[in-house]
Amino acid sequence: MSTIIEFIEYFDNNFGSIKAHFCWAVFILVFGFIVILIRECKKQGIDKNDTTNQRKLIKTFLAAIAMTFTYMVISSYDSFDNIVYAVIMCASFFGCIYLIETQNRDTEGVATSIDGLSGAIFFASAIITPCLFVLWYIGKIIYFYIKDREDYDKTEMHNQILSSIIKICIVVFVVLIESVVNFFTDFSFEQKLIYYAILLVGTETLLPIIETYSFEFISNKINE
Predict the structure, then answer these.
(1) Where residue 108 falls among pLDDT bands split at 50, 70, 90?
(2) CA–CA separation, 107 vs 102, rounded Å?
(3) DSSP string, 50-76
(4) CA–CA separation, 30 vs 61, rounded Å?
(5) Degrees (nearest 5) of the Cα angle 203, 208, 214?
(6) Cα 178 to Cα 180: distance, rounded to the nearest angstrom
(7) Is 45 helix (H, G, I), strand (E, B) or coil?
(8) What are the backbone angles phi and psi of residue 188, rounded to the nearest 5°?
(9) What is the C-alpha separation between 121 and 29, in angstroms, rounded?
(10) For residue range 191-213, what is the model confidence (pLDDT) as tens digits?
């Protein structure tokens, strides 16, 4: 489907199947949303009685997950015209602004901490090319390697380097898995709804657990 007209025709001819797959995708995304919400509440120290901040997180991450999922599905069609991608990039830019403003409404949209950017970071991390992440983590390894040779906390420096190495391995692993799946499978639009829902929820819920376990396991082995 390389044009909007073709997509509309396909949607009209396969409405029943698309609706069923979309319902399953929503179910998967809702599960991921609940897990991510619980994780963010614990991370930011939000009490179960703090309904104000809870509502703020719900509104932010509900929008972030929906926007990310939509971006992943649409951007998978690399045959679209350039004008479509221009619209996607503009929408992504304004989407990040919306998330920042929503999560920091009490400070007029100006983030005063990294937690105030969590919604926008979630969205941006899902749409940025993996190569930039790898370069970022390599830069961190070099930075902390240099700091390690100076008068700094050696344990903290080593932990930062190990964490960056693990993150690089995870990024490469995800890219390889996605490449293999895309190479051997030609997904229809409705199948992509399920695939990207699983990919989004998996990367945002399971990978942080794997990363934490890997870090603790390797750290304990090194310190034995």
Answers:
(1) very low
(2) 10
(3) -HHHHHHHHHHHHHHHHHHHHHHHHHT
(4) 11
(5) 120
(6) 6
(7) coil
(8) -80, 170
(9) 18
(10) 888 988 888 888 888 888 888 88
